[in-house]
Design brief:
It is built from three helices and three strands. By secondary structure, it is α+β, with helices and mostly antiparallel strands. The chain has a single domain, classed as GAF domain (Beta-Lactamase, 2-Layer Sandwich). Strand 2 and strand 3 form a beta hairpin. The N and C termini lie far apart (47 Å).
Length: 130
């Protein structure tokens, strides 16, 4: 299965938790965004109003295609249960994305088959005696 080019619209960077997650290909947790070493993340967190963040990668066939993140208003660590739940959401999102890709592929094949059928029908009609 091939992924569409638009699946990765921008280059991930370490300035934000989602970019870090994609780059390290693992769970990233920021217990207190005020202490984050990257100014971009600190500014975004202050602007939006959160103090902690958690992100997990979305992986298809060994390739990270994105990440999913949650935030909280109070600083602190997320529990193992919360991390496991977010990983489950990421896995479900990956399944949904793969299903969309498969559906689009199937639609394309059906469209080509319909067009080929129409051409064969037209060719047969032209060969029939009037």
């Amino acid at each position: 299965m091939s992924e569409p080019e638009e699946a990765t619209p921008c280059r991930p960077d370490r300035g934000r938790i989602t970019g870090r997650t994609v780059q390290v290909r693992d769970v990233v947790q920021i217990p207190d965004t005020d202490d984050d070493p990257f100014e971009v993340q600190r500014l975004v967190a202050r602007d939006v109003g959160y103090r902690r963040a958690l992100a997990v990668p979305m992986v298809i066939e060994g390739k990270v295609i994105g990440s999913i993140a949650v935030t909280g208003r109070e600083p602190g660590l997320y529990s193992e249960r919360q991390i496991a739940l977010l990983k489950t959401f990421a896995d479900q999102a990956v399944i949904a994305i793969e299903n969309v890709w498969l559906f689009k592929e199937l639609e394309e094949k059906n469209r080509a088959l319909t067009q080929a059928h129409a051409q064969v029908t037209e060719a047969l009609d032209q060969q029939r005696p009037n």
